[in-house]
């Protein structure tokens, strides 16, 4: 029968420098391809494997990519391959692909690897013709594979590709750097010493800038935006004034490719010399090097790479010979396809601009939020502690409400330093709204919040108590007594409710007619107007860590683990940790749970164990269903799976709220806090008194008036009416369950 075309065959390879998260991408490519009925081959050792052929190109089954999500590096290997740079090498590569029927490729690598792929694609028809001419393949084979269709994923810890907001590995590298900076900060503080830390990034200052923000360091040097002439004085002045305000550790972060305005490289050793000579104190250099590439991938690198791998398969399977090759990118918190070569060319243009000292052009190509964060860092670091207060400083109070979210301290620190930089007096309210009523309010200075950026917990204290109707009068009195001109409320659902209440009662209490802003901070990620709240990323990392351990323990025996995550009625943590942790099934309140579902799931589970599986991971949101509780599910699975597997439960609980904030949460907290202070300042300057909540919508900082809160939330289940991440459920289904395992 010739009306049935053979299955499409996809090859996947990792090339160039390795990056954490590549394994998650490979796993997603393999499983999505199998799910869609395609054949999929791993090409080992990058292009070298393609040139060598033989057993370096191997068909993959579902289980070949099991248990690799947590592993750093790339299990299919990567290499630099000189032969692939030559046409002769690419001819061999084409032959080897055709021997396996492969004419679709997903390449995971940096700009070099992606350029190589594009050259290969353009040459493909000529290579195929030559192979026919040489008698190495026959005409029908050539006709079946007239074109090579490619999709690129960017694996690069530097986050240096224009066109995508994040590259695979960059977030994990930031984790490594921040672990190091946190460690250095404590030893530096003990000895009152200065440290110069070099991070990777030859043409890209992303890692340096973000680690300077997340690490709360004093100074940063990046290639795209060299410091002004005489920067040595500026740097030493900043360190001196920080010391005078009580800072004990001074850290300067230097990107590998840092240079001055004249294009002369700035070495760590030079920075050290300057510090020693001008400050007359001990300075040490730490070059982080390959540590940044190592270690287990962060939760973000696991789930984001999974989404990218899934989308790449969609892209190569639907591509036609005429399609322009695409790079699968993350733009504004969504997966998007962008023209591959345009991104590669722009990335090269940045390097060129830096070499030509066209720094404005380089910053422009890095994009708006990079420039914004550079300015944020400057403003934070230059929030001189000796600022002279204006004649009529305004008094801004900061209060928390709701559950604990890692990153709350980072937000307070940023707000205090920004606010003081703008000439305001910043007041910290201890113990949430109860503290406000009890008058536990004190001024916070620059030095008071020193070291808070990476501190877990919540220094000011938070709780779920918000004012009752009877207490509103006392709240109004407290605002008047302490002459509070503006209020920043950092917290979760209860914080938003309290703000909404104060805002709604403005007509009755004149004291509430002050500018009010809510900053989203909750691990549950259940707030309106923001796709991400502070704390959620840290919680996901904590869960991924726990799941790694649980999975390891479970592998020893045939076991099903039912893990319960927090989130109240919001399934964000459950779904995203399911993606990051490789769960077979995730139960959410948003979807509901039926007996029919449970029956089908347990049957599939049994079938999988029968066919050799040793582990099943099920994640259940704590309120997925009031009757089908975690205990109920465990009992049901145990009963039905008797003999085949045993069942254990793990309720992760408050473990998820603990720990120091992740780099991303620190950065987000800083960014949002800066915008909140700007909002309050602008309101006070213009004499307005709006109430709003801030958040990230499609990656952009957005404000919503408090008056819109009611229309945006589901009050019963305490979550936004629209939740962007629900659309990711199809990815979980595609990568979690083998198409052969349907019971
Ligand atoms: P990265 O992909 O991380 O930028 P490289 O630039 O070292 O790393 O590229 C990795 C591999 O990709 C190279 O060893 C080579 O095999 C292939 N490659 C890179 N650039 C080209 C090119 N212009 N033409 C063909 N192959 C290339």
From TrEMBL:
Source superkingdom: Bacteria
GO CC, alphabetical: 6-phosphofructokinase complex
Biological process, per Gene Ontology: canonical glycolysis; fructose 1,6-bisphosphate metabolic process; fructose 6-phosphate metabolic process
A single MF term (Gene Ontology): metal ion binding
EC number: 2.7.1.11
Catalytic activity: beta-D-fructose 6-phosphate + ATP = beta-D-fructose 1,6-bisphosphate + ADP + H(+)
Main location as per UniProt: cytoplasm
Localization per record: Cytoplasm
Principal EC category: transferase
UniProt keyword terms in alphabetical order: Allosteric enzyme, ATP-binding, Cytoplasm, Glycolysis, Kinase, Magnesium, Metal-binding, Nucleotide-binding, Transferase
A Pfam family per the record: PFK
Annotated ranges, domain Phosphofructokinase: 10-314, 395-680
InterPro entries given in the database record: 6-Pfructokinase_euk, ATP_PFK, Phosphofructokinase_CS, Phosphofructokinase_dom, PKF_sf
Keyword Protease part of the UniProt annotation: no
Cofactor(s) for this UniProt protein: Mg(2+)
Pathway: Carbohydrate degradation; glycolysis; D-glyceraldehyde 3-phosphate and glycerone phosphate from D-glucose: step 3/4
PANTHER family referenced in this protein's UniProt entry, alphabetically: ATP-DEPENDENT 6-PHOSPHOFRUCTOKINASE (PTHR13697:SF4), PHOSPHOFRUCTOKINASE (PTHR13697)
Family: Belongs to the phosphofructokinase type A (PFKA) family.
Name of the protein described by the UniProt record: 6-phosphofructokinase
Organism encoding this protein: Candidatus Accumulibacter aalborgensis
């Amino acid at each position: 029968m010739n009306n049935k075309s053979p299955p499409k065959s996809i090859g996947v390879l990792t090339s160039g420098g390795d990056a954490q998260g590549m394994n998650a991408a490979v796993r997603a490519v393999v499983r999505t391809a199998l799910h869609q009925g395609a054949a999929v081959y791993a090409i080992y050792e990058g292009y070298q494997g393609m040139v060598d052929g033989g057993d370096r190109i191997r068909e993959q089954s579902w289980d070949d990519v099991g248990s690799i999500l947590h592993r750093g590096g790339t299990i299919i290997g990567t290499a630099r391959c000189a032969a692939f740079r030559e046409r002769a090498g690419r001819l061999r590569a084409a032959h080897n692909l055709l021997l396996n029927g492969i004419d679709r490729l997903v390449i995971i690598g940096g700009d070099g690897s992606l350029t190589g792929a594009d050259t290969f694609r353009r040459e493909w028809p000529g290579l195929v013709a030559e192979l026919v001419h040489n008698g190495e393949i026959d005409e029908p084979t050539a006709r079946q594979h007239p074109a090579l269709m490619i999709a690129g994923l960017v694996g690069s810890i530097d986050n240096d590709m224009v066109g995508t907001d994040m590259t695979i590995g960059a977030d994990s590298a930031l984790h490594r750097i921040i672990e190091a900076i946190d460690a250095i900060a404590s030893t530096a503080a003990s000895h009152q010493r200065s440290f110069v830390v070099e991070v990777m990034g030859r043409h890209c200052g992303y890692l340096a800038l973000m680690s300077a923000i997340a690490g709360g360091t004093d100074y940063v040097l990046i290639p795209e935006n060299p410091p002004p002439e005489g920067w040595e004085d500026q740097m030493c002045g900043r360190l001196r004034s920080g010391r005078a305000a009580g800072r004990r550790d001074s850290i300067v972060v230097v990107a590998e490719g840092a240079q001055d305005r004249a294009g002369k490289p700035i070495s760590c050793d030079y920075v050290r010399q300057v510090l020693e000579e001008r400050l007359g104190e001990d300075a040490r250099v730490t070059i982080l090097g390959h540590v940044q590439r190592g270690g287990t991938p962060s939760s973000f690198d696991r789930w984001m790479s999974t989404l990218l791998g899934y989308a790449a398969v969609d892209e190569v399977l639907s591509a036609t010979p005429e399609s322009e090759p695409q790079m699968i990118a993350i733009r504004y918190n969504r997966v998007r396809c962008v023209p591959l070569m345009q991104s590669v060319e722009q990335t090269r243009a940045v390097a060129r601009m830096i070499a030509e000292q066209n720094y404005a052009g380089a910053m422009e190509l890095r994009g708006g939020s990079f420039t914004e964060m550079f300015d944020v860092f400057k403003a934070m670091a230059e929030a001189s502690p000796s600022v002279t207060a204006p004649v009529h400083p305004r008094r801004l109070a900061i209060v928390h409400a709701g559950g604990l979210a890692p990153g709350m301290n980072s937000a307070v620190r940023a707000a205090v330093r920004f606010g003081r930089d703008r000439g305001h007096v910043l007041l910290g309210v201890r113990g949430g709204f109860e503290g406000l009523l009890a008058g536990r309010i004190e001024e916070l200075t620059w030095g008071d919040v020193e070291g808070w950026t990476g501190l877990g917990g919540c220094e000011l204290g938070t709780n779920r108590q918000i004012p009752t109707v009877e207490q509103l009068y006392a709240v109004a009195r407290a605002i008047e007594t302490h002459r509070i001109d503006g209020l920043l409320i950092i917290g979760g659902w209860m914080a938003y409710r309290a703000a909404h209440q104060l805002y709604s009662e403005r007509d009755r209490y004149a004291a509430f007619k002050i500018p009010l802003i809510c900053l989203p901070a909750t691990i549950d990620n259940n707030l309106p107007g923001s796709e991400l709240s502070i704390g959620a990323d840290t919680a996901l990392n904590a869960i991924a860590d726990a799941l790694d351990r649980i999975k390891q323990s479970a592998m020893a025996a045939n076991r099903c683990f039912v893990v319960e995550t927090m989130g109240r009625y919001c399934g964000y943590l459950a779904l995203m940790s399911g993606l990051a942790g490789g769960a077979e099934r995730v139960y959410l309140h948003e979807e509901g749970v039926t007996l029919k579902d449970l029956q089908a799931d347990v049957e599939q589970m049994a079938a999988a164990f029968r066919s050799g599986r040793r582990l099943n991971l099920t994640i259940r949101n704590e309120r997925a269903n009031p009757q089908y509780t975690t205990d109920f599910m465990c009992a049901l699975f145990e009963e039905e799976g008797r003999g085949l597997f045993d069942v254990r439960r793990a309720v992760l609980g408050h473990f998820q709220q603990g720990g120091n904030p992740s780099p991303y949460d620190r950065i987000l907290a800083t960014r949002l806090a800066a915008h909140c202070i700007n909002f309050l300042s602008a309101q006070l300057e213009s004499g307005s008194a709006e109430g709003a909540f801030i958040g990230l919508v499609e990656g952009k900082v957005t404000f919503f008036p408090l008056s819109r809160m009611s229309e945006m939330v589901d009050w019963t289940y305490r979550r936004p009416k629209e939740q962007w991440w629900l659309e990711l459920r199809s990815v979980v289904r595609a990568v979690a369950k083998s198409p052969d395992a349907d019971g």
